[in-house]
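Let us practice reading a record.
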Amino acid sequence: MHFEVSPRTWRRWESTRPGWPREDYAIALHAAFGLWPEDLGFEAPAGWVRAEQGKDTAAEAEVKRRAFVSVTAAALAPGPIPPRHVDPALITYFQEQLEGHYRADMLLGPHDLIGTVSAQYQLIDRLVRIAKGETRRSLLRVGSAYAALVGWLYQDAGDLGAATFWRGITQEIALRSRDPHLIGYSLVNQAQVRTDLGDGHGVVDLCEAALEDAGRLAPKVRVMAMQQQAHGASLTADRSAVDRLIDQAASLLGRVDDDLPWGNACRRTPNYLEVQRATCYGRLGLGSEAGRLWEQVLTGVPETARRDRGVYLARHATAAATAGEPGQAVEIAKEAAQIAVDTGSVRMLRELKALEQVMRPWHDASAGQDLAEALAPVAEKGIL
């Protein structure tokens, strides 16, 4: 192995208090001497993790980086496209495919769909560049919905950086389409990422922008914006706003009758708004009230929505722990843990980690030990 450093660096390393080497130097020193810098007399700084300890994480990060670069290329493919006729019938084809992707997401989860959906977005983008008139506008509208789905898949997979990128693509395409419903939908998509980042004021800003001209929006978009704004209110500890916004959305739910192919969770999900209210109550620390709502919600979850059931169970368990019922929390968590093992859901992982935090007062008690045992299969799989 050939490795060189400057004389100045060598003198500093030979001094009585050598400064910590750069990470690439640290790895090279280990390769040369079989010892890590702290074993050679360097004082390790706070946060230093040996390469051998972080190797798996670094490898996973590289895989994610390559996948992200590959998929984002679908949104940024350069170059002119040879002219050709674009049949308007393709719009119906892409809309039908989109509905199928929504159903597949419920069954498969994000990882198996990201490549497929982003590849179809790339095809739509190529067609948009050569289509004309109403066909082009319709392709922009369906393309925005595809970009939104890719963003959601990344968000569900826990990659907020990629999710934010695709939410930006969604908003760009929505603005180009001049469709007010899609523009509002794209702002709600951005607000969803802000919710996961814990930025309550950002969520409220985006949802208020979406609702600024509410009279132009389809009831579905208004429902989506109001319930998402309720999540922002829960992050700023404003319970009255949570209830007001959820109730306003509920008054509109019966008017959702459009044929738009996107954003149909409010029609597809049983007890949709009570799921949102229960989640907001959980954030507000209202354990008993959230628990009662989760009991109601869970009775209506279909078999085809197993991942959603697992997320709801984990939130229900956290609500029980918040209400001072650790034994009940553990019993509920057992089923959630099994679903987490079966699906590898990142959303469920986040919820189970939140449950662990709330259960910390019982860490040394029997309930804490029972929880550790219940979550052991998840940890063994490397999910938790």
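A brief commentary: Confidence is low (pLDDT under 50) at residues 51-57.
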